[in-house]
TrEMBL record:
PANTHER family referenced in this protein's UniProt entry, alphabetically: ARAC-FAMILY TRANSCRIPTIONAL REGULATOR, REGULATORY PROTEIN POCR
SMART domains: HTH_ARAC
Residue ranges of the TM segments: none
Official protein name in the record: Transcriptional regulator
Annotated keywords: DNA-binding, Transcription, Transcription regulation
Keyword Nucleotide-binding part of the UniProt annotation: no
Superkingdom to which the source organism belongs: Bacteria
Alphabetized Pfam families for the sequence: AraC_binding, HTH_18
Gene3D superfamilies cross-referenced by the UniProt entry: Homeodomain-like
Species assigned in the record: Capsulimonas corticalis
PROSITE patterns: HTH_ARAC_FAMILY_2
Amino acid sequence: MTNNDILPLDISAIHQRGAASPIHAGDAGQFLSRGIGRHPSRILSHFDLIYVQSGVLRIQEDSAAFEVKGGESLLLWPGRRHWGTEDYPPDLAFYWLHFAIRTDESDPQISPAISVPQHAVVARPRQLTELFRRYLDDQESPDRDQLSADLMVSLILCEISRAIRSGTEPVVERSPLANLAKQFIQANSHLPITTSSIAKSIDVNPNYLSRIFRRDFGITVTDAIHQSRMAQARFYLMENDYNVETIARLCGYDSAIYFRRVFHRLHAMSPLEYRRLYLKVHVIGY
């Protein structure tokens, strides 16, 4: 085994009527360090997925040593001993999730649909955080069923697998102007920017910018501005206790009413409903 093994998974059976999910979801939680103790030494009978939010987790699995930083994931394998090599730093916070894989010995040559790296930099940290929060929220619900939990774990593993896919997909050639406009949006979406003001900043005709931006990214400049602002809004809703009016202003909206309307259109729920769904902190014994 290498120090970054790949977990191949075929999740296509989930879509077949009556087929069991290849994933069996288990317990999950969020670990918040108090600056004392270290990861226990143990051998588990199931996979242990860790997603570090902040700090650094230093851990050993058999002969492989890992240093897992904020925004990185680690998949500890069943049947292997793992243990912490240093005490938990006070700023360490991570999600953890236990799951097992149901093997199908009748078809050992089946082609995996996704490949999950053992240690990876997560391509979309905010999206993965949202999935973990949703899983933990559902875990507390008396109405949760096993299939729903299995499917949610599948989504989490698919999200982590992007760390591989994002590095293997062909590079799409985009206009330098379109890329420049996107960078400008990401850096300035908290300001009252428009297609015209962006075009003026990068010295290009607004109509031409609109055309090449939609051609290269598949969305309008205005939609890209909203998406960037919504990503920041989700962060504020999950990580702070700001009210909606404050979040709207911080994200570049003059009107909280308009902000609520855009948020609901893109998320099918209000900002406060989103906060109630995802903001809960679940600190479960690990």
